[in-house]
Amino acid sequence: MAGPKAPNGDDRSPGVATPDGDVATETEKKVKRPHLYKVLLHNDDYTTMEFVVDVLRTVFHHSESEAVNIMLHVHRRGVGVAGIFSYEIAESKANKVMRMAREHEYPLRCSVEPEE
Description:
Elements: E1 16-17, E2 23-24, E3 36-42, H1 49-58, H2 64-77, E4 79-86, H3 87-103, E5 109-114
Antiparallel strand pairs: 1-2, 3-4, 3-5
């Protein structure tokens, strides 16, 4: 039984013949990278700088100097990126920050938005 003819007239199927006579073809599958989301910290007049540095170190695993730099950016600009993650991780970290802030009675706000 002959298979379909290729456009060039060749009646062999494209691909590689396996030992039992079947033809194995390769299909290229492209794996999409997950969309990434920024976790943002928002400045306020009550949350201490030390608490924000502690949050950046414990929740986002930044070094002391990175945490201080991010905290100063948030303080001066009003908002800053604490980290960039997949959606589930970003939401989890934002919720943890908000929970920590409430436990310490700080109004620190944390939000998640898509990275552009």
